[in-house]
């Protein structure tokens, strides 16, 4: 993935200003922010679920090994 950099970001912002106009930019920014927030929350939930599942499986494996060695 290529890095955009500051000049590229400025160009994108200028194009957004031209296309959407100054009245719509705050609404657009708010919508993008809410979308990113929801995406981050969903990603965190998935990672937490997977981590919890692996932790439970590891505990089961340890219990099985303890029972077979005892």
UniProtKB/TrEMBL annotation:
InterPro entries from the UniProt entry: TatA/B/E, TatA/E
Entry's Gene Ontology cellular component terms: TAT protein transport complex
- Give GO MF terms, alphabetically: protein transmembrane transporter activity
Compartment(s): Cell membrane; Membrane
Topological type in the membrane? Single-pass membrane protein
Q: Give UniProt keywords alphabetically.
A: Cell membrane, Membrane, Protein transport, Translocation, Transmembrane, Transmembrane helix, Transport
Q: State the Pfam families in the record.
A: TatA_B_E
Top-rank lineage group of the source organism? Bacteria
GO BP terms: intracellular protein transport; protein transport by the Tat complex
Note the subunit structure.
Forms a complex with TatC.
Q: Say which family it is in.
A: Belongs to the TatA/E family.
For this protein, the record's HAMAP family field holds:
TatA_E (MF_00236)
The UniProt function text for this chain reads: Part of the twin-arginine translocation (Tat) system that transports large folded proteins containing a characteristic twin-arginine motif in their signal peptide across membranes. TatA could form the protein-conducting channel of the Tat system. Part of the twin-arginine translocation (Tat) system that transports large folded proteins containing a characteristic twin-arginine motif in their signal peptide across the thylakoid membrane. Involved in delta pH-dependent protein transport required for chloroplast development, especially thylakoid membrane formation. TATC and TATB mediate precursor recognition, whereas TATA facilitates translocation.
Protein name as catalogued: Sec-independent protein translocase protein TatA
